[in-house]
């Protein structure tokens, strides 16, 4: 010290304190399974402490909500479900504390795959139309699904679980790896089903992570409706075969003959058909056909005698469009048309050769014959009378001068006949009187005004014994044509046709013969409606012209006796009233048997009886009649070929030829019904069925059909009846979900009532819908996961699951997927095609208190610089609730001060919280409400509460370390206050560079000595504080800024001296006067220390002056000067080692102490704190921790602070050995401006 020649020996007691090291955390990467259940261990934080202190574990960071940690063991367990698909890794902040120091580290967690996602089809359904002629092996569509899982769990295998109808299972296949559906068999629209429903399954590869080796598999199904499209590959088909029509000859052009009906067997195409006549057994052109509707009509004149009794047409039906082969498909059928004869030809006479062959007969008008005079018998004149009409009736008469001599036979005929002359008056045949007789034979056609052939006799009486052998000739019938005299064209035929069972006639000769001996019986035939007449002849062998030979005819009583009468004298049996075949017992088949008696008038009268069998032939004089005026049936929908009901009609005609009935649907069927005819016990019934290729649909527009059914006999006598068919609803429709609006449910709801309801509809009238749960997924942290918050009643009502609590902060949305099933389904699938979905929006309520965000910041306040409104600390918090519920307000609830002796004292409200917000985080800035006591040493314990809008709150305690006035450093500048304030930013920056600490300026004031009223010097009161709460004393500041790299700059800025803060006397306990002796000793010691420090201060003042002189010297140029400035008295150019600037010796081997007597300063540069350090590098220095002595017998004295310079000098060697990048550290507690 200046003015003192001696020295003071200070005894220093040095205590070695073991430095506490921070815990070490390893490793930094963990792999965990995403399917680890909640509350199960995921990994263990591995940390060690060299001192073996008990470690406490904490987790922090944005992902801390997914985990919980055992603070003692470090075992980290799952709090929320993990989702690798959302992120395959996450970071987790870990803080390990040993009771004194802590270590923060960020761990990387790799999320390993587990099979927790179902495959999802890209389409809700795959519906496709497929032509029935699609080639086998063709690709139909691709049912593609995705799985959010990776590895084998994301590999999807496809299969077809079910095909409806089941016989279509062999028609389709699917590629297991790609989902490509291919056609495996041939489709057929007509013979097979027209649609198929495929149930396609996508199953993932399975897997797990946490539960290895057990694998769990997920699958999902989707439906595909394959509609078979009909293509024109079948020929058309005529229906209602065989076809037989009739038309009269000479019918007018365009007369309707018959209508053919055809259909396209490709019912799905239903192409229009075009009709044409391709061939005819008669000349083409007689008939024509309507191209569109198949009506056959007359095209030109028809002559039955020319073309015959029948004409067969070959009719063709052709599709209007090309089929799949590029041609128009067609089919043909035969239509037989019967030509009904009309009486349009006159009788003609023919002369035939000896062979009597038809071809030998020629038309002639002159005929000759020979007769022996006075002879009886027939005269052969080779005359044959013919009528080309099918139905003929000719009457022959004889005219001429001697026509009385002869008679002509037959006098009438219904067939072609040989005409003969019979001698009636042989006495007039006298050759001597007449040699030639010319007669005229006239044949008259009794059918019309033309002249039919005429037989010689109107009636031929032929007799034959019953059961005569077949071929027995009864007689010859002959006829001629009086018009042409050409009897060669006359043919003979027996009528009615029913007699042909018994007899036959030679068509050329007219010879009548027996045809069937068995059937030959005494019977008479008469058509109903016609008059019957039969002469019963009998003879009596008694003498003629006596009573004994006179006969009286009568009819014996019988069932049908009253229908007939007999002339008692002539024996002519006739009908009484009209004969009606239908009035007879059907079992008699029209056969009436009468017993006719012939009784003579003798005495006693003798009689005989003969049976007379009369066959009443049926004619078509009755049309069909329905047995009911109308019919009403019902049929279930959806059944192909279902039986609907039967209509019944009867034709009273008794022969099948006339009473056979056929049914047809004239109108109202829309092609949906078919009617078929069946013989009934009486009449015929028509069975009405649904078309075998169609299904009725109750849900369509046709719920009721009104059919007009026609019954027709073979001769087209018709009757119609109305048939009403009601389509009955069959539960065959699948239910469908109605769209549902989103439902809102508040979290923590405990209501037992329904929060929402699924609604579905079923087109069927009779149904019972039951709802089944498919899945419930909740949106948690942006991804959908399975949850069980709700239950679904069979009625469709959705309720809250009482076993779970709805938490908005965990999941904010729920999606319920349900299926609806119709229990009354009778046909087809009973569930809906698509599932129903209900979206439930979880509404937030205020059920979460704010949560403080952990911070490792150390808060420090410089008591002297603090004033009202000074920000000293900060807290941040979030609230898991949403909207208004998450708004947080901070409030300081209490303030305490804990001194260095751990004594806690309640304080007034020295602090307050200012609320602000940064995005979703609420921040509370802790500010002082007044100036602080600068003498307090220790820390403030500030209780801060965070309260949301619902008055839910939580609190935390902040530790704010107080920097007391003992750390005040007075910096004296040789400049005015104004100049110092102007250069203040540069001064602070250089001080920070030198000390690596935050610089807090407490005051700037002029330095006014007592002996002077004015001065150009200025005192800057500053504090040098580190981010961990420690501060530098004035001595430590002097040491750090003595570095030439900084001191020159500071001197240039006017720094002249560094003064120490005044020593604050410890408060004495008023009750401790008994310790006055000890206090006196302490005062002595303090006096010595103060004297020593003052001397040191003067030395530094001298050093600063020397540095200033050096600065001036550096500006002088000298030839002897080497590369740098000449510093007087330094060891830069001399070997003395004296440094009058700093008066310090720096030994590189020393860590803390600085010996003023050492001369090693010439060996070591004072650039130990290189100016390359920026403020960012301060953070890389180890924090200076405040420690309490743990020695036994600790008296609880104030803690000792480790000199910051020690750490700074210790790192200099490392800094020069490595080129580490600058790393910044920002202390949010204060800045040079705030402090």
TrEMBL record:
GO cellular component: catenin complex
UniProt-listed PROSITE patterns: CADHERIN_1 (PS00232), CADHERIN_2 (PS50268)
Superkingdom in the source lineage: Eukaryota
Biased composition (Acidic residues): 1186-1195
CDD domains, per database record: Cadherin_repeat
Primary residence: membrane
Annotated ranges, domain Cadherin: 24-121, 122-238, 239-349, 456-626, 627-737, 737-852, 854-973
Protein name listed in UniProt: Cadherin domain-containing protein
UniProt organism field: Champsocephalus gunnari
Lineage of producing organism: Eukaryota, Metazoa, Chordata, Craniata, Vertebrata
């Amino acid at each position: 010290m200046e003015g003192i020649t001696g020295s003071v020996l200070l005894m220093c007691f040095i205590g070695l304190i073991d430095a506490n090291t921070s815990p070490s955390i390893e490793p930094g990467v963990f792999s965990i399974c995403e399917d680890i259940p909640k509350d199960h261990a995921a990994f263990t934080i591995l940390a060690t402490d060299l001192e073996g202190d008990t470690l406490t574990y904490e987790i922090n960071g944005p992902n801390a909500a997914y985990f919980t940690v055992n603070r003692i063991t470090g075992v980290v367990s799952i709090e929320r479900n993990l989702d690798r698909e959302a992120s395959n890794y996450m970071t987790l902040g870990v803080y390990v504390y040993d009771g004194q120091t802590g270590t923060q580290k960020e761990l990387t967690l790799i999320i390993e795959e587990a099979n927790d996602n179902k495959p999802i089809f890209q389409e809700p359904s795959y519906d496709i139309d497929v032509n029935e002629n699609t080639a086998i092996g063709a690709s139909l569509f691709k049912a593609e699904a995705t799985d959010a899982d990776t590895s084998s769990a994301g590999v999807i295998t496809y299969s077809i679980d079910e095909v409806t109808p089941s016989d279509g299972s062999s028609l389709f296949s699917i590629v297991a790896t790609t989902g490509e559906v291919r056609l495996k068999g041939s489709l057929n629209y007509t013979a097979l089903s027209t649609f198929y429903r495929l149930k396609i399954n996508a199953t993932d590869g399975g897997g797990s992570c946490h539960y290895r080796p057990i694998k769990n598999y997920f699958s999902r199904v989707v439906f595909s409706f394959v509609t078979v499209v009909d293509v024109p590959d079948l020929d058309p088909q005529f229906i209602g075969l065989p076809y037989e029509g009739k038309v009269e000859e000479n019918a007018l052009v365009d007369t309707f003959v018959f209508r053919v009906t055809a259909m396209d067997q490709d019912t799905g195409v239903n192409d229009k058909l075009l009709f044409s006549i391709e061939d005819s057994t008669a000349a083409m052109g007689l008939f024509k056909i309507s191209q569109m509707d198949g009506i056959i009509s007359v095209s030109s004149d028809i002559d039955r005698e020319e073309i015959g009794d029948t004409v067969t047409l070959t009719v063709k039906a052709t599709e209007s469009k090309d089929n799949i082969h590029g041609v128009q498909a067609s089919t043909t059928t035969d239509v037989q048309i019967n030509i009904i004869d009309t009486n349009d030809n006159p009788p003609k006479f023919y002369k035939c050769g000896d062979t009597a062959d038809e071809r030998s007969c020629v038309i002639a008008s002159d005929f000759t014959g020979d007769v022996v005079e006075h002879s009886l018998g027939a005269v052969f004149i080779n005359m044959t009378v013919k009528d080309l009409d099918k139905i003929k009736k000719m009457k022959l008469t004889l005219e001429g001068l001697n026509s009385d001599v002869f008679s002509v036979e037959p006098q009438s005929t219904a067939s072609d006949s040989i005409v003969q002359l019979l001698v009636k008056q042989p006495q007039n045949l006298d050759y001597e009187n007449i040699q030639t007789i010319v007669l005229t034979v006239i044949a008259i056609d009794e059918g019309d005004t033309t002249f039919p052939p005429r037989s010689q006799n109107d009636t031929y009486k032929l007799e034959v014994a019953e059961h005569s052998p077949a071929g027995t000739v009864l007689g010859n019938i002959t006829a001629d044509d009086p018009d042409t005299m050409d009897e060669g064209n006359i043919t003979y035929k027996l009528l009615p046709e029913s007699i042909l069972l018994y007899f036959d006639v030679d068509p050329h000769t007219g010879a009548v013969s027996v045809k069937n001996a068995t059937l030959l019986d005494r019977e008479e035939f008469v058509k109903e409606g016609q008059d019957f007449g039969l002469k019963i002849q009998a003879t009596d062998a008694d003498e003629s012209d006596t009573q004994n030979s006179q006969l009286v005819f009568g009819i014996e009583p019988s069932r049908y006796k009253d229908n007939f009468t007999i002339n008692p004298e002539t024996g002519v049996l006739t009908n009484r009233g009209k004969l009606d075949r239908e009035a007879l017992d059907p079992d008699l088949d029209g056969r009436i048997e009468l017993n006719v008696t012939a009784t003579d008038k003798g005495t006693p009268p003798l009689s005989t009886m003969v049976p007379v069998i009369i066959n009443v032939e049926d004619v078509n004089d009755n049309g069909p009649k329905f047995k009911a005026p109308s019919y009403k049936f019902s049929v279930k929908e959806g059944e192909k070929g279902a039986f609907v009901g039967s209509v019944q009609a009867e034709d009273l005609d008794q022969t099948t030829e006339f009473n056979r009935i056929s049914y047809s649907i004239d109108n109202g069927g829309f092609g949906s019904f078919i009617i078929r005819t069946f013989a009934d016990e009486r009449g015929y019934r028509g069975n009405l069925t649904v078309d075998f290729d169609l299904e009725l649909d109750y849900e369509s527009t046709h719920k009721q059909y009104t059919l007009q059914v026609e019954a027709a006999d073979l001769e087209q006598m018709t009757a119609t009846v109305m048939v009403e068919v009601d389509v009955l609803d069959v539960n065959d429709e699948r239910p469908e979900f109605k769209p549902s609006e989103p439902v809102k449910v508040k979290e923590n709801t405990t209501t037992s009532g329904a929060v929402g309801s699924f609604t579905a509809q079923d087109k069927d009238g009779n149904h019972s819908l039951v709802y089944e749960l498919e899945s419930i997924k909740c949106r948690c942290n942006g991804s959908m996961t399975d949850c069980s918050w709700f239950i679904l009643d069979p009625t469709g009502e959705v309720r809250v699951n009482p076993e779970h609590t709805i938490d908005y902060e965990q999941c904010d949305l729920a999606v319920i997927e349900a299926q609806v099933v119709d229990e009354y389904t009778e046909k087809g699938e009973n569930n809906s095609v698509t599932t129903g979905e209900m979206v439930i929006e979880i509404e937030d309520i205020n059920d979460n208190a704010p949560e403080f965000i952990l911070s490792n910041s150390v808060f420090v306040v410089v008591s002297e610089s603090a004033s009202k409104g000074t920000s000293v600390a900060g807290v941040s918090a979030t609230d898991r609730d949403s909207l208004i519920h998450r708004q947080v307000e901070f409030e300081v609830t209490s303030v305490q001060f804990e001194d260095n002796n751990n004594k806690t004292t309640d304080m007034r409200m020295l602090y307050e919280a200012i609320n602000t917000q940064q995005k979703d985080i609420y921040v509370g800035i802790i500010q002082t409400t007044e100036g602080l006591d600068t003498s307090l040493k220790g820390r403030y314990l500030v209780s801060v509460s965070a309260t949301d809008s619902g008055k839910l709150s939580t609190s935390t305690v902040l530790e704010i370390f107080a920097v007391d006035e003992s750390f005040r450093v007075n910096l004296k500048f040789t400049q005015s206050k104004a100049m110092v304030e102007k250069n203040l930013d540069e001064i602070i920056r250089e001080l920070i560079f030198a000390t690596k600490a935050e610089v807090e300026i407490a005051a700037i004031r002029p330095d006014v000595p007592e002996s002077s009223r004015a001065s150009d010097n200025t005192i800057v009161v500053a504090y040098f504080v580190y981010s961990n709460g420690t501060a530098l004393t004035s001595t430590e500041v002097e040491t750090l800024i003595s570095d030439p790299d900084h001191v020159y700059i500071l001197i240039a800025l006017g720094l002249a001296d560094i003064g120490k803060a005044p020593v604050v006397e410890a408060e004495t306990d008023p009750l401790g006067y008994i310790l006055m002796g000890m206090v006196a000793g302490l005062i002595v010691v303090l006096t010595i220390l103060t004297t020593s420090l003052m001397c040191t201060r003067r030395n530094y003042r001298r050093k600063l002056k020397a540095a200033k002189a050096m600065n001036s010297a550096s500006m002088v140029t000298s030839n002897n000067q080497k590369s740098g400035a000449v510093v007087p008295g330094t060891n830069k150019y001399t070997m003395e080692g004296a440094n009058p600037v700093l008066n310090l010796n720096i030994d590189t081997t020393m860590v803390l102490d600085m010996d003023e007597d050492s001369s090693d300063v010439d060996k070591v540069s004072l650039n130990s704190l290189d100016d390359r350090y920026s403020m960012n590098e301060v953070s890389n220095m180890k924090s200076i921790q405040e420690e309490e002595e743990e020695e036994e017998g600790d008296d609880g004295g104030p803690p000792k602070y480790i000199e910051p310079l020690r750490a700074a000098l210790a790192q200099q060697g490392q800094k020069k050995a490595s080129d580490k990048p600058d790393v910044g550290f920002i202390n949010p507690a204060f800045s040079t401006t705030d402090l």
